[in-house]
Amino acid sequence: MRPVAIYVAPVGAELIEGNPLTAREIAEETIACARAGASLVHLHVRDEQGKLVEDTSVFKQTVDMIRRESDIIIQGSTGGMSDLSAAQRCTALQVDGVEVATLNLGSTNFGEGVYINSPSDIRYWAREMKARGIKPELQIFEPGMIETALQLFQEGLLEDPLLFNFALGFPGAMPATVKGCLYLSELVPDGAHWSVLHHGMDDFSFLAAALAMGAFAIRVGFEDSHSIGGYTAKSNVELVSRVARLVTDLGYRIMNPAETRRQLGLKS
Ligand code: KMH
Ligand code: ZN
Hints:
Helix content: 25-40%
Number of helices: 8
Bound molecules: (5S)-5-amino-3-OXO-hexanoic acid, zinc ion
Structural class: alpha/beta
Strand content: 15-25%
Order of helices and strands: EHEHEEEEHEHEHEHEEEHEH
Radius of gyration: 17 Å
CATH topology: TIM Barrel
Number of domains: 1
Distance between the termini: 26 Å
CATH class: Alpha Beta
């Protein structure tokens, strides 16, 4: 049976009911998601009001609480729309326990907003990750960003295995369609892994198609959507459980954190 990983991004920017915000709430939700099958958690450096900040105190407490109970892989974010500088956006990399971090490979519109990731900032974050032995997960919003990743690989800023995450369905960016996902999957080099997140998640069959196309992982969570295939979830655990059921119903098996770590080539 092919192994598949489930990632969870539990904290949304929208302050909806059930969105965990305090260190304890995020840690408890993450631990419950790990029990439901998630092997990696994607976390931003936020304060307890959910605002993206430079100060890592809530983030550190969250990581420590998770670590006491679970071996889930911790992914820090260098992304998110904010007024933070490039240096302020990567304070997660300084926190013990962070093994993977997102690296956004270019700029895109999000609705009426503009999500800026300039080439010089991308190189800066890639260097910071390399210096700390933190594995980048390459956030891809459109096909040109894969080209940029391959360019950074040529420059020695990225190493094998390359980990791609196709972030699809954001308003104004590449939609979450089967053909689009297939096209992106064919651009990634042999030996690389790719995963998907579907902003809004109105079409559950898209996730099934991504799995059939060879997705290494599916990411769900309130950061990307609190509904799934028309159903509004009350917690991240519900989203993880729904995807876990999909994975096993399709005849795949769910990877635990240790196996996911090995497959991703993580050092820790
Ligand atoms: N929430 C999206 C903007 C990141 O944090 O680096 C995708 C994302 C990027 O998770
Ligand atoms: Zn994020």
